[in-house]
Amino acid sequence: MVLSMDEIVNAICIHMAERKGVRPTDVNVELSWEEDTGYSAEVWIQGRSQYLVESNMIEAILRYLHSEYDIRAYRENVRLDLDEEITAIVNQ
To answer: One Pfam family from the UniProt entry (predicted)?
Structure first.
């Protein structure tokens, strides 16, 4: 299974909204990949920004897989990939 960049953004929005007690529509996310730091996401909530590292992003993806697809995956089953955009590859 492959999650698109939009689904990764949705997963992070939902995850951060639950953690911060706001609506998912109040969360803005920008994904990035840098050679030095790897995958990351900058998240803006109520005018404040926060950076998530790859492990935080995967945690959000795991919760999204469970809530949206009823799939219980483990960390080692999810790998972020970069081709033309960032995707998540889920092996079951």
So the answer is: DUF2653
Helix-then-strand count for the chain, H and E:
2, 6
User: CA-to-CA distance for 77 and 92, rounded, in angstroms?
Assistant: 6
User: What's the CA gap between 66 and 35, in Å, rounded?
Assistant: 30
What's the rounded Cα separation, in Å, for the pair 79 and 92? 12
> What does the CA dihedral 10, 14, 16, 19 come to, rounded to 10 degrees?
-170
pLDDT by residue, tens only, the chain of 92 residues? 999 999 999 999 999 999 999 999 999 999 999 999 999 999 999 999 999 999 999 999 999 999 999 999 999 999 999 989 999 999 97
Within 8 A by CB and 6+ apart from 76, the residues are none
* CA gap 54, 31 in Å, rounded: 10
Q: List the structure tokens of 20.
A: 């911060």
